[in-house]
Amino acid sequence: MKLLSLIKNKIVVFVAILFVSGMIILPDVTADGFRNAINIWLNSIVPVLLPFFIFSDFIKSTGELEYLPPRVYPFIISFLSGYPMGAKVTADFIKENRLSLPEGKRVLSYSLVTGPSFIIFTIGSFIGSTKAAVIVAISHYIGALLNSFFYYNSHKSVANYYLEKHNTENITMEKFTQAIYEGFKAMGTILAYLMIFTIAIFFIEHIGLFDYVKNQTLLSFIKGIFEMTIGINLIGMCDISIRLKTIISAFLVSLGGLSVIGQATSIAGGCGLKLIDIVEVKITHGLLAGIIATLLVNIMLI
User: Fold this and answer.
1) CB 127 within 8 A of CB 220
2) What is the Cα–Cα distance from 153 to 149, expressed in whole angstroms?
3) Which of 135, 197, 243, 278 has the least CB density, counted as fewest CB within 10 Å?
4) What letter does residue 70 receive in the DSSP assignment?
């Protein structure tokens, strides 16, 4: 186990060194990737998600949502806040023995979702159709619900946990100020991962590996595997039907891409959930969402 951990650490360090070396050798490519990430973040993500993050965090700070059961609370928080909050709350519950590890994986299978505002407005603007974005959202959430059946287990909860009632506090401007801080903090995290994976895409593009992929839709899809926001944005520019754009977007937004998987793995560290667990639940979620979207586009996009 120690040897495996050592090997993993060396791989991470090697990738980090390789990435930094690329930034030094190819400063222009790095700058282009950074500008591209900033442009998407500033124009398509911040205007939609920042206000939603601030007010949802303000609602959470009142403590009212904590009366929800441990199997429900992570989904509600992730629904309000988006990726990767479902992983954080689920990991916290496992560490606090509110959920067993098998239960935690099942909860994660339907709680690692993004928020409706991101799908309806950001994804909708990318693919040019609010109706199509609604299909993506429906597929995303129904897919998450169905995904939980793949990870059903008969393990009982390790503890019958009920949150104690908190003393009622006055809602003050201090809470709202803290919510603003948390909103910008979340935006910073999203930007960091968006920047890293966008620059990685630009590096791969610069050395010519993407030249072997001649189909623009396939190339956009591959880039979406790295960073789903980049990929869906590119899918929206492809000369394909709105139905196909919807299906691909449903898959990518539910998969989350390596960027979201990396965020979730990092934030869930120390609870027993591993990278392979998160990869597994996101792949099945993506496939289910894609199948549901395939069925819905024939009904709703006539």
Assistant:
1) no
2) 9
3) 243
4) T
Q: Closest Cα partner for 83 from 43, 37, 45?
A: 45
Rg of the chain in Å (alpha carbons): 20
DSSP secondary-structure letter at 161? Answer: -
**How many residues comprise the chain?**
302
Nearest to 118 by CA among 191, 45, 38, 225: 45
pTM over 0.90: no
Question: Residue 129, SS3?
Answer: coil
**Gap between the Cα atoms of 89 and 87, Å rounded:** 6
Q: What DSSP string describes 142-157? A: HHHHHHGGGG---PPP
Under 8 Å between Cβ of 114 and 106: no
Q: How far apart are CA 17 and CA 3, in angstroms?
A: 21
CA distance 206 to 29: 7
Residue range 188-225, pLDDT digits in tens: 877 888 888 888 888 888 888 888 888 999 999 999 99
Token reading at 68: 């929800």
Say how far apart CA 19 and CA 10 lie, in whole Å: 14
Taking alpha carbons only, the member of 95, 102, 88 closest to residue 60 is: 88
Residues 6 or more apart whose Cβ sits within 8 Å of residue 95: 270, 271
Distance CA 261, CA 83 (A): 9
Give Cα 225 to chain centroid, integer Å.
Answer: 12
Write out pLDDT tens, residues 71-106. 888 898 888 878 878 888 888 888 888 888 889 899
pLDDT tens digits, one per residue of 225-251: 988 988 999 999 999 999 999 999 999
Q: Does residue 220 contact residue 234 with C-beta atoms inside 8 Å?
A: yes
Are the C-beta atoms of residues 145 and 285 closer than 8 Å to each other?
no
